[in-house]
Backbone:
């Protein structure tokens, strides 16, 4: 019996890495006991598995999935309760954002952060394409870097074009499994290619008409860094949503709001309309950033769709 890690999954076949051996294609035999939800796929990238080599001596047969440290899911497109496991055993996540080309809204950033908090996955914000920024973009970025650093999220600026700050990012990624996300066209593939030139991921020319990129990535796939560690490229940020979260607990995932909420007059304060709300008071005193509170209320009131 061998042990390995799932690098890629396409339908019924899985690419598995085992030590320093060449990747092995594996299949699943038998049924696996699933967790408390109905997943359409029993195994996802990042899963650690046990397998043996079949008598044909080419394919592996997966017999066991080891307990996951965490996993992220998305709801299947149909209306059933089925979910798809996107990835497992994630150490940290990077949200790649751009102030322009394309615009990333703060609601989008905060929705991602709240989801990551719900999954207990640390977030690093990387502001890319600074070579293209106007003075106004630079000011806006600095403002956001201040806001997010103050509440404990590491925030870095980057130009994959000029290789600025790339070494710092390599240090953060080394020996970890990192999920990377962000709008199409922000430079995810370009960044991964810079970090690991051998990978040659397809990059998309962004269409200037709408400042949005074209979708190329469709399946979650894990790429191995030669300097140690993995990066998981996710097909769409929307998939990494707040699917498991009750509206009433949303504020738990806005860490500075959660912290101050202990001082609200009502224990079940929603921080929207109640008197004696310590959160609203903190916003009026600029202790909590207006944009963060705006994201909270937008998501709470389900009005954030237009901020995508
Ligand atoms: P993805 O959809 O997030 O994977 O984005 P891509 O990596 O395909 O990048 C979209 C476009 O932005 C490509 O044309 C890249 O060359 C370009 N790009 C990526 N990073 C930068 C950067 O830092 N500066 C500039 N000027 N262009 C960049
Ligand atoms: Zn309150």
Residues:
């Amino acid at each position: 019996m061998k042990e390995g890690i799932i690098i890629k999954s396409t339908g019924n076949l899985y690419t598995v890495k085992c030590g320093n051996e060449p990747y092995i294609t594996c299949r699943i035999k038998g049924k696996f006991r699933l967790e408390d939800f109905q997943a359409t796929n029993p195994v996802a990238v990042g899963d650690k598995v046990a397998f043996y080599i079949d008598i044909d001596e080419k394919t592996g047969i997966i017999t066991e999935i080891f307990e996951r440290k965490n996993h992220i899911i998305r709801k299947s497109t149909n209306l059933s309760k089925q979910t798809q496991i996107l990835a497992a055993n994630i150490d940290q996540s990077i949200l790649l954002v751009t102030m322009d080309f394309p615009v990333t809204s703060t609601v989008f950033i905060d929705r991602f952060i709240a989801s990551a908090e719900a999954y207990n996955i640390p977030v690093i914000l990387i502001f890319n394409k600074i070579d293209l920024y106007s003075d106004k973009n630079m000011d806006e970025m600095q403002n956001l870097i201040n806001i997010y650093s103050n509440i404990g999220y590491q925030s870095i600026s980057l130009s994959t074009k000029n290789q600025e700050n790339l070494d710092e990012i390599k240090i953060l990624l080394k020996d970890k499994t990192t999920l990377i996300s962000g709008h199409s066209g922000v430079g995810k593939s370009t960044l991964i290619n810079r970090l690991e030139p051998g990978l040659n991921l397809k990059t998309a020319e962004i269409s200037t008409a709408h400042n949005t990129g074209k979708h190329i990535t469709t399946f979650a796939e894990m790429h191995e860094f030669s300097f140690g560690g993995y990066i998981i490229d996710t097909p769409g940020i929307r998939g990494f949503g707040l699917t498991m979260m009750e509206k009433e607990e949303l504020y738990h995932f806005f860490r500075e709001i959660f912290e101050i909420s202990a001082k609200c007059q009502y224990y079940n304060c929603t921080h929207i309309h109640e008197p004696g709300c310590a959160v609203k008071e903190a916003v009026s005193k600029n202790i909590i950033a207006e944009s963060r509170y705006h994201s909270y209320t937008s998501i709470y009131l389900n009005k954030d769709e237009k901020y995508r």
The chain has a mean pLDDT of 86.
